[in-house]
Amino acid sequence: MKTDHLDIKRGIRRNFARRAGSYDRQAGVQRLMAQGLLALAEGRLPRAGRILEIGCGTGYFTQLIKQGCNGASLVALDLDAALVTAARRRLGTAAGVAWLVADGETLSRGSFDAIVANATFQWLTRPAASLAAYFDLLNPGGTLAFATLGPGTFRELAGALEQAAAALQLSGQPAIAAQGFLDGETWAELLAAAGFRMVKLARECVTTAYPSVLTFFKALQAMGATNPEPRPFSPRLLKALIQAYREDYGADGSIPVSYEIIWMVAQK
Ligand SMILES: C[S@@+](CC[C@H](N)C(=O)[O-])C[C@H]1O[C@@H](n2cnc3c(N)ncnc32)[C@H](O)[C@@H]1O
Questions:
Q1: What is the domain extent for residue 188?
Q2: Closest residue to atom 13 of ligand 1, CA basis
Q3: Ligand 1 centre and the CA of 223: distance in Å?
Q4: In CATH, what number is assigned to the domain containing residue 83?
Q5: Is 16's C-beta closer than 6 angstroms to any atom of ligand 1?
Q6: Residue 196: CB within 6 Å of ligand 1?
Q7: 165 CA to middle of ligand 1, Å?
Q8: Residue 55's pLDDT is what?
Q9: Is residue 248 part of a domain?
């Protein structure tokens, strides 16, 4: 059955909304992405008078922007009301942020000096159209700065799943959402097609360790970063997957989990 953008978007919102309480405990890589993004955007954000943040989640990056750009007027939005409430609580009402519950891919009004997004653009369902819309929303000279995850994210999981499916002679095994994330070259092409000039591009592969495959799965669930179109593993496939992950990648009582981080700063 074909799933449309709205179904996928509902899945993304549901995944993150359910985890509003546990996201912060697990989101170490997202914090690294946020800090890298601020460093890469350097002096551009503090100079911006009006900033729009897409996908504020529980407000970790919002708080960093607010601290770094105190004079700026900040609009922060997320697909989900529970997350916006958590973010508003984190920053307090005195922060002077305008909070919105909205789909960041359907914005058509407003004018901003900077549009930023941390760990969110990998979930865009219409990236080309959304980048074109952000170009229109930016004032001349305005900055688009985002950190996203590339298709190398969870490469061990994808490899172990392939192994397990082959061992069980299964075809059409459940997909890993990260394999569909866009790579840096594609983002650069989409930015150019939308009219942006690329200012900076950085990439890094970060590998973290988990004590077991199941702890890794639980952490993913706690972050809400699971497949928005879930096709659960059968118990047989799950068992084979865990075994393949341990045997092919595990060492010293832990398993590695890689993330491909992509940072981009572009100018209108
Ligand atoms: C991994 S979290 C990152 C949250 C936050 N930026 C941070 O750095 O901790 C991704 C967030 O993007 C939001 N999101 C995904 N697609 C979105 C969209 N189209 N519009 C608005 N928010 C979206 C999710 O609801 C989630 O809160």
A1: 5-152+178-207+257-267
A2: 55
A3: 11
A4: 3.40.50.150
A5: yes
A6: no
A7: 31
A8: 97
A9: no
